[in-house]
């Protein structure tokens, strides 16, 4: 499309005879039409709109910045670099969630320590170490905290909970919060899975949300502020051009891994179901080149598993039998049988249902080998990891007593539909 625009602009200058034949207003109309088509298909993030949309009341203030590797603009410039050059404010400190500001820790649940950023000379504070909630000392040089985190649309992805802990700290320390909004890679229409029971609240779910929530990070911030922190001074810099029916690749934005084991949009699409495997002795594919799309264990016979999974008639997906050998994490170095998930219709595919079907299939086929992981898990030392991931113990108990997938799906669908009525009042788009 951009080539067409260039051609429309350049052609008359190299073909003078065309000038007399094509009125200038026609050329202008052509270029305007082409530009309109290009820009109408572009989504602009909060970061892309920073200079125009920065709150006037916060101009010139000292700011801290919470970012991770996917905090980039359309030109793939990292937010830290964009902020460091801006004249709208004074950048004084950096904060990083799980995996660090630029992906410093590869594996899951690995804490990291703060350091001094070599590029800017600014202090970098870890929010995935001895502190997950910013301490007052971290705020001594700032007036506002800016949050620019690419979420992936799943309740157990920890970045949104780091955001909430920052909102708490900012309210307690009288600091403003600015959230630069970004797309939900899974779109904003479908929601799925159990809604968190607060008795199972943890760092993989601190507030009532379904597992696939269908909200942007800005909408979640809006929900948290209005529901739990009404006195917080919150500003959300909205996106332009994002629609609720868009998957990430339809935004025309570049995909950057928000965490080291989230390499592609395909990974994000299956994650709301496949992260459940972290609560078991099954490999969720860490240590392979397709984490969460590949899964299995040494005791699984692939063809038998696929036959069982086909009985569930999960829409929009094909389970392909495979063998693989993880290089790290669970079953590292051991030959595992299992499957690769191939999503063939992402609009029909329901990842949480697929994840529960996998757990049920493996437990039914291999009861002597399948195990639920014991705590600790993500700072929870008492409750079962699968229960805090699901936000309830009902999934685990239903699978144990042989409940049908259909019956399980009925009750969690009721929960997610009920939440949809709550969600509606906090949506921005």
Q: How does the major sheet shape up? A: 7 strands, mixed
Helix/strand-derived class?
alpha/beta
Going across the major beta sheet, what is the strand order?
A: 3-4-2-1-5-6-9
SSE topology string: HHHHEHEEEEHEEEHEHEHEEHHHH
- Could you report the average pLDDT, rounded to the nearest whole number? 92
- The percent of residues in helical segments reads 25-40%
CATH class of the largest domain reads Alpha Beta
State Rg. Answer: 24 Å
How many strand elements?
12
Counting H and I runs of at least 4 residues, what is the number of helices?
Answer: 13
Explain this structure.
The chain has 429 residues and is of the alpha/beta class. The chain has three domains: 2-40, no CATH class; 50-251, Rossmann fold; 265-392, Aspartate Aminotransferase, domain 1 (Alpha-Beta Complex), CATH 3.90.1150.140. It is 33% helix and 14% strand. The chain is built from 13 helices and twelve strands. It has helices spanning 2-14, 16-21, 24-40, 50-53, 79-85, 159-172, 217-228, 265-274, 302-310, 351-365, 385-390, 394-400, 405-424, and strands spanning 62-67, 90-96, 115-116, 123-126, 144-148, 176-180, 192-195, 210-212, 234-237, 294-297, 317-324, 336-343. The strands form three sheets. Strands 3-4-2-1-5-6-9 form a seven-stranded mixed β-sheet, with helices on both faces. A three-stranded antiparallel β-sheet has the order 10-12-11. A two-stranded antiparallel ribbon has the order 7-8. Helix 6 (159-172) packs across helix 7 and helix 8 (265-274) crosses helix 10 (351-365).
């Amino acid at each position: 499309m951009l080539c067409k625009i260039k051609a429309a602009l350049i052609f008359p200058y190299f073909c003078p005879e065309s000038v007399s034949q094509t009125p200038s207003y026609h050329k202008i109309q052509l270029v305007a039409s082409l530009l309109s088509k290009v820009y109408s298909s572009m989504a602009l993030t909060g970061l892309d709109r920073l200079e125009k949309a920065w709150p006037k009341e916060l101009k010139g203030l000292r700011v801290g910045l919470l970012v991770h590797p996917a905090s980039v603009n359309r030109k793939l410039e990292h937010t830290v670099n964009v902020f460091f050059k801006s004249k709208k404010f004074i950048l004084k400190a950096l904060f990083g969630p799980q995996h660090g500001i630029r992906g410093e820790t590869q594996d899951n649940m690995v804490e990291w320590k703060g350091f001094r950023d070599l590029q800017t000379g600014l202090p970098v504070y870890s929010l995935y170490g001895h502190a997950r909630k910013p301490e007052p000392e971290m705020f001594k040089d700032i007036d506002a905290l800016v949050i620019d985190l690419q979420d992936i649309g799943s309740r157990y992805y920890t970045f949104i909970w780091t955001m909430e802990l920052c909102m708490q700290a900012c309210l307690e320390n009288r600091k403003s919060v600015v959230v630069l909004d970004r797309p939900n890679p899974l779109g904003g229409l479908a929601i799925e899975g159990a809604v968190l029971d607060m008795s199972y609240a943890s760092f993989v779910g601190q507030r009532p949300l379904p597992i696939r929530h269908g909200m942007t990070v800005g909408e979640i911030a809006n929900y948290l502020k209005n529901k739990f922190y009404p006195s917080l001074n919150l500003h959300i810099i909205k996106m332009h051009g994002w629609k609720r029916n868009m998957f990430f690749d339809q935004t025309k934005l570049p995909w950057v891994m928000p965490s080291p084991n989230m390499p592609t949009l395909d990974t994000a699409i299956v994650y709301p179901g496949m992260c459940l495997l972290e609560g078991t002795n099954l490999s969720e594919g860490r240590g392979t080149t397709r984490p969460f799309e590949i899964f299995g264990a040494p005791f699984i016979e692939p063809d038998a598993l696929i036959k069982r999974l086909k009985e569930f008639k999960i829409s929009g997906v094909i389970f392909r039998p495979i063998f693989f050998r993880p290089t790290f994490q669970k079953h590292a170095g051991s030959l595992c049988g299992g499957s690769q998930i191939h999503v063939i219709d992402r609009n029909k595919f329901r990842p949480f249902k697929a994840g529960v079907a996998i757990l049920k299939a493996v437990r039914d086929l291999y009861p002597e080998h399948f195990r639920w992981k014991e705590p600790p898990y993500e700072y929870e030392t008492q409750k079962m990891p699968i229960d805090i991931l699901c936000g309830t113990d009902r999934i685990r108990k239903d699978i144990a007593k042989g409940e049908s997938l259909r019956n399980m799906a009925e009750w969690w669908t009721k929960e997610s539909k009920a939440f949809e009525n709550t969600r509606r009042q906090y949506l921005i788009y």
